[in-house]
Every structure is written in structure tokens, then in C-alpha cells.
Design a protein that fits this description.
single chain; mainly alpha; hpI Integrase, Chain A; 3-stranded antiparallel sheet; 3 strands; 43% helix; globular
Length: 224
């Protein structure tokens, strides 16, 4: 059932974008937020594939599904760990998130992920309501996955200071933008509250902007 969620040629490495406010200019809403000042580097396709492969052989039973779900949905850490079996609709290819950061939402998922989850859910203990159950947690589901994630990142030859759990979300959103998906649709997938929050990903790399202008030129085909 396991397979790499990415295929194709590696995408260009994205450079970190400075978010320093310009003097005498009103600050961008997320510049003043220290949590958002540092956008972790998204991993490129080749690195994501290595991450997935290393997760397959890790001792943790949860790290592979955690990484695949993160890369193929852009869901946040706790949104993933608290998925309930009853909230996964494989036919409609959505996961219902009742306590998302910006409010309850339905999270679209890829066909590959739907196929994987079908087998994963079928292998769960009968009556188990959680996709990441933990008998030792008061919530009933796993609350943390930091140690196995760090282990897999290092096994993939990546820097655990750069590649953290939230990097999966940044990676999924960045690749959606670079693939030419319009920002309102990206917002629908990522669950961001405003388009302004999604636009920060569009500013990280200009290659997709140039490609968009080429598409406009080819569509209009104006004579010089």
C-alpha cells in the first residue's frame, strides 16, 4: 500500500524569503507574528521521496502515515494525529476536521492517499476510533511524534533544524502554488483563514509567476 506521494523531476530549491518590515511602512500582518517570521524551507520532490522511503522502515508505526498525510494534504500536526475513523470519507475523498485552526472544515485528499487510508483503516483494531491511537494518552490518540520524525529526517540526510513537522505543511502548499493552482483553491485545501496568509507562499519563488505570464502570452498570441 505504501508508495511515494511525489513523482517527476525535482523542483528547484526554494530560498528563504526575508520578511523584514520596510521602514515607515505598515507591517504585513504576519511580519509582527514571531511564529510566522520564519518560514521553514519546504523540501523539494527528491527530498520528499527520501523522507517517505525512510519513514517506511522506521520503528514507529505512525511516522509513515503521518508524513504521507502531511505531504498530501498540508494538514497541521494535531489535525493529523487527531483524525477519527468516522471523519474519513474515502468515497468523497475528504477528511472532516472538527477543530481546525480556522474553524471546522472538510480537507480534500488525493486519490493515492484515499487508497492508502483504505488499507490503513482496515488494519486498525476493531472499534478503534482513532487513526493514531494511544492508550497512554488521555485524549485516546497520539499527541506527539517529534522523536520518530527527527529520526526519519536524519535518516533521509536532511537537517532536523530545517525540516520540522510543520515543514510538511509548508511543502504541500508551496508545491501547490508552484504547480499553478490558483490561490483561492490553495486556501480551500490548506484551510487558511485568509488569502493573505496564502500569498506568502507565492512570494517565495517567482518561477511559477513567469510560467503564468508565458501561459498568458501563449493564449493571447498577440502579434508584435
Amino acid at each position: 500500500m505504501r508508495g511515494s506521494p511525489f513523482a517527476g523531476d525535482p523542483a528547484p530549491v526554494l530560498k528563504h524569503t526575508s520578511l523584514e518590515p520596510v521602514a515607515d511602512q505598515p507591517q504585513h500582518p504576519f511580519v509582527s507574528n514571531p511564529v510566522l517570521q520564519e518560514l521553514h524551507h519546504p523540501v523539494v520532490v527528491e527530498q520528499a521521496a527520501r523522507l517517505v522511503e525512510c519513514a517506511k522502515t522506521d520503528a514507529s508505526q505512525f511516522i509513515y502515515p503521518f508524513i504521507v498525510i502531511g505531504l498530501e494534504t498540508s494538514m497541521r500536526k494535531m489535525e493529523i494525529l487527531s483524525i477519527r475513523r468516522e471523519n474519513v470519507d474515502l468515497q468523497r475523498r475528504v477528511i472532516y476536521i472538527p477543530k481546525a485552526k480556522a474553524g471546522a472544515r472538510e480537507q480534500p485528499i488525493t486519490k493515492h492517499l484515499a487508497d492508502f487510508l483504505a488499507g490503513y483503516i482496515a488494519a486498525l483494531q476493531p472499534g478503534c476510533p482513532w487513526l493514531f491511537p494511544s492508550m497512554g494518552a488521555l485524549s485516546g490518540h497520539a499527541m506527539e511524534i517529534r522523536k520518530p520524525f527527527k529520526r526519519v529526517v536524519e535518516a533521509a540526510g536532511l537537517d532536523p533544524k530545517q525540516v520540522v513537522r510543520h515543514t510538511l505543511r509548508h511543502t504541500a502548499i508551496t508545491h501547490l502554488v508552484q504547480a499553478g493552482v490558483d490561490l483561492p483553491t490553495v486556501k480551500r485545501i490548506s484551510g487558511h483563514k485568509t488569502l493573505l496568509m496564502v500569498e506568502r507562499y507565492a512570494h517565495q519563488n517567482g518561477a511559477h509567476i513567469e510560467e503564468a505570464m508565458d501561459k498568458l502570452q501563449n493564449r493571447l498570441k498577440l502579434a508584435s
